[in-house]
Amino acid sequence: xxxxxxxxxxxxxxxxxxxxxxxxxxxxxxxxxxxxxxxxxxxxxxxxxxxxxxxxxxxxxxxxxxxxxxxxxxxxxxxxxxxxxxxxxxxxxxxxxxxxxxxxxxxxxxxxxxxxxxxxxxxxxxxxxxxxxxxxxxxxxxxxxxxxxxxxxxxxxxxxxxxxxxxxxxxxxxxxxxxxxxxxxxxxxxxxxxxxxxxxxxxxxxxxxxxxxxxxxxxxxxxxxxxxxxxxxxxxxxxxxxxxxxxxxxxxxxxxxxxxxxxxxxxxxxxxxxxxxxxxxxxxxxxxxxxxxxxxxxxxxxxxxxxxxxxxxxxxxxxxxxxxxxxxxxxxxxxxxxxxxxxxxxxxxxxxxxxxx
Amino acid sequence: xxxxxxxxxxxxxxxxxxxxxxxxxxxxxxxxxxxxxxxxxxxxxxxxxxxxxxxxxxxxxxxxxxxxxxxxxxxxxxxxxxxxxxxxxxxxxxxxxxxxxxxxxxxxxxxxxxxxxxxxxxxxxxxxxxxxxxxxxxxxxxxxxxxxxxxxxxxxxxxxxxxxxxxxxxxxxxxxxxxxxxxxxxxxxxxxxxxxxxxxxxxxxxxxxxxxxxxxxxxxxxxxxxxxxxxxxxxxxxxxxxxxxxxxxxxxxxxxxxxxxxxxxxxxxxxxxxxxxxxxxxxxxxxxxxxxxxxxxxxxxxxxxxxxxxxxxxxxxxxxxxx
Lengths: 357, 323
Ligand SMILES: Nc1ncnc2c1ncn2[C@@H]1O[C@H](COP(=O)(O)OP(=O)(O)OP(=O)(O)O)[C@@H](O)[C@H]1O
Ligand SMILES: [Mg+2]
Fold this sequence. Notes:
Chain B: The complex is composed of two ATP-binding proteins (UgpC), two transmembrane proteins (UgpA and UgpE) and a solute-binding protein (UgpB). The complex is a heterodimer of chains A (about 350) and B (about 325). With about 350 residues, chain A is of the alpha+beta class.
């Protein structure tokens, strides 16, 4: 167990036109669960693999504990990695898969047996210890991969989309299990995913990457409530935040000529961010044309447009929705972004997020 | 003659299967029967394959088995039935025994060396595989050389008068006499045979190596510091199916396909040179005109090869991990 420090880390692949990762600074406290999230190709895996030692570090420094690991072999870094496709050794039994790393580190037979037994108990792998990976289901393989990481008792766990090959239901249960295990073991973890729901539920802190750079770091709820840019805003939260062109006139934000509420900003165009869950259908408000409705059971997502700009509204009522409706929003829940840069504009009237419980 | 044993086994089985399938299609399944309303059609399709099998394998092997029981007049005036005399002669001859011994030794060394070197080169090539296509092509191109040509090239390299290897040996004070000295000839035979076979093994080992999933190798990279351990514990076991396949192929190669090489190296050489059993079959039959004895020897060879094949599949395949 250790803290993990990335200082100005960058990576340019040989032959790559531009840097896959650049200027990444993250300080990870001992025991923290950090999730790297971002769209495909944004450099999440690259960053993780640099920490693991599977990819050389072009720039900057990576410290695990108090050791600079830039030049160390993966096996010397005291990390364990869980791969997307599990990467189990197909010719070894589950037991040997877990024991292999320990054997190579020269642990005694007794220690190995004890750790494997402990991991098998935690992950309920007991009945499968003598099977080969091909005789296991996807979920069981996933557990073995976890077990292989756990037995090493490493300074840090590295996960590269470990759940993306599982079906939706299993993904949810494994997600919780990973979180519980990590809490219990208290091992610093770096977890890569492009699933924002996974990111939100697992992370102590989220790192949102865009084009190899950090877009925002923060607790999931902070990021959800105050996305630092339109990129983060549209990436975190489902359905995605609707981003619309609006103008500020006389201290109020106007959408399609209708005032939505006061904002403490100078007049001019802004990008307005509206979360579907903050909007509601109301007797009076901004008129919206309904385009289609996604019925989800507990709620429905109403897709429509205001002045030709599309947006989504979550509705929990049970009236039929169609044609022309009106939507309303609490002015404190408006998100404003600079139209040119996409950066967040602080809204003086916005409610400050309350402390996370 | 070369890899007939393997080929026969395969065609034999497929023929039986096809017959069985045809038969079962006729009786219990009326829906399928419609397809065979002209019962001759499937046979028509089978005919070319059957003809090849019969003409090139069954007929010669039946001939070989029959003539192994006869003593044929060298001038072609009839044959006398001699029972198992030809077999007894072959098996009791000390020359046969020494040839058999050399064949075993030759097979072992050629197989071991060409597998070992092929693997070594494949591992090295795999490390630098990007941009190393010239290296690959260079190695693989040897495979395109026909065995007699390989033999000729080898012969030139080992030539008593102009061979660079002979010169090299002389430089180190060794008088290399290929075609005259028994063991010097053996060394030349082995060297040429191994050289000829390495590219084949190289290609298969390389593709085997490249089919080891990258993430499995990376997992090993995290689990083991020593490259040798990773190779021994992870890469090699995953290569086992490839290696097993190559083992079968290489033994067959060493026993049969080295014939042209041996022919080029020892032909018209006066001395007592090492030869393999296959070459002896040819020598006794076509040079010595002892058709009966030569047939008996080739029947013995068939049995040995069949036994070897069964043995390999029985005992080795079980220890090989597949997929
Ligand atoms: N070996 C490589 N050589 C050259 N470029 C690479 C290599 N690996 C990745 N890249 C490039 O680096 C960038 C980041 O890739 P990376 O695999 O880190 O993305 P990612 O965020 O993990 O995406 P995904 O969610 O699809 O896994 C991409 O533009 C990719 O094309
Ligand atoms: Mg990735």
